[in-house]
Amino acid sequence: MIKRLQQFVPDALPVVRKATWHCRQCHHDYYGEQYCTNCQTGGFSIPRTTQEEICEF
Length: 57
What we know:
Layout: H1 2-8, E1 19-23, E2 29-32, E3 45-47
Antiparallel strand pairs: 1-2, 1-3
C-alpha cells in the first residue's frame, strides 16, 4: 500500500505504531513495533494497556 501511495506522494513514509505490546503466544511484554522478537511474528501481539486486561490461560 505504501508503494502505491509513494507513486502520488514520493516523500510518503509508512506509519509505525509504537506501543507496549503483549504476545499471547509466548507471554512476552515489549515496547516498540508490533513484532515479537521471541516468536518472530506480530500475529499474536496485542496492545497492552493494563495488567488486568491481559488474561493468562
